[in-house]
Amino acid sequence: MGRHHDDFETLVEEARRAPVDGWDFSWLEGRATEERPPWGYARLLGRRLATVHSALDLDTGGGEVLDEAPVLPPLMAVTESWPPNAALAAARLGPRGVVVTVPGDDGRLPFPDGVFDLVSARHPVRTDWPQIARVLRPGGAFLAQEVGPRSVAELGEYFLGPWPKPDPREPEAARAAAEAAGLRVVDLRTATLRTVFHDIGAVVWFLRKVVWIVPGFTVERHLATLRRLHQQIREQGPFTAHTTRFLIEARKPGP
């Protein structure tokens, strides 16, 4: 498995040239693997969407996850702030009657109060609990899979050394923020999952795409560390890190 028999320069150059647009990770196929959370978020969301009249999906990316839902409610809207992704989402979801919107610079959701039965998000950039509470109707629910604390920390620490600061993405911090916005948390589950890199090209491409793991990453700046990691993978086998995810569901009090 993997391409670690290839030489360092070839692997790095190939990964440096590969496009990293959108939220598609298929370039890593056969080169890196990531365990999935046990709750199966896309299926869970699909089942919920079939039971509501109106729903909003936040930070939808190119609409890939939402498009897996077999049935969408009569009123279905999504938000996406990055223009290339918003265009992808419009092309993919428009034919299914979905309204694609770009949030304002102030982060305010461009919808009236109390209109959605369900608000969802998979790996949102930032969860704005007061805005979510505002657009949910009484009795409505927010369902999300979020990136948890210290995700892929081992890889970040390999390049940067120990992470000193506490991580704000703690599940209990999300619970507290939801409750502060007037919502009641009815489900909160966490998972720690293995992420395995089989060659240095996979590491380079991943760090170019997921920019917050090693802020300011470039091949030139981190060449010596990349060479050392390449050697380690060749001699000791794939590099393993761990991601954390949590599933949260919060309801707005009402009928």
Distance between the termini: 54 Å
CATH fold-level assignment: Rossmann fold
Determine the structural class based on helices, strands and strand pairing.
alpha/beta
CATH level-1 class? Alpha Beta
Main beta sheet strand tally, sense and closure:
8 strands, mixed
CATH homologous superfamily label:
Vaccinia Virus protein VP39
Number of strands: 8
What shape does the CA trace take? globular
Low-confidence stretches: none
Write the element-wise H/E pattern from the N-terminal end onward. Answer: HEHEHEHEEHEHHEHHE
Rounded Rg: 20 Å
The number of helical elements comes to: 9
CATH architecture descriptor = 3-Layer(aba) Sandwich
Mean pLDDT: 93
Domain Methyltransferase type: 61-143
InterPro entries: 23S_rRNA_MeTrnsfrase_RlmA, Methyltransf_11, SAM-dependent_MTases_sf
Organism: Streptomyces carpaticus
Pfam family, one: Methyltransf_11
Describe this structure as you would to a colleague.
The chain is an alpha/beta fold and 255 residues long. The chain has a single domain, classed as Vaccinia Virus protein VP39 (Rossmann fold, 3-Layer(aba) Sandwich). 33% of the residues lie in helices and 24% in strands. Strand 5 (116-122), helix 5 (129-135) and strand 6 (136-147) form a beta-alpha-beta unit. The termini are far apart.
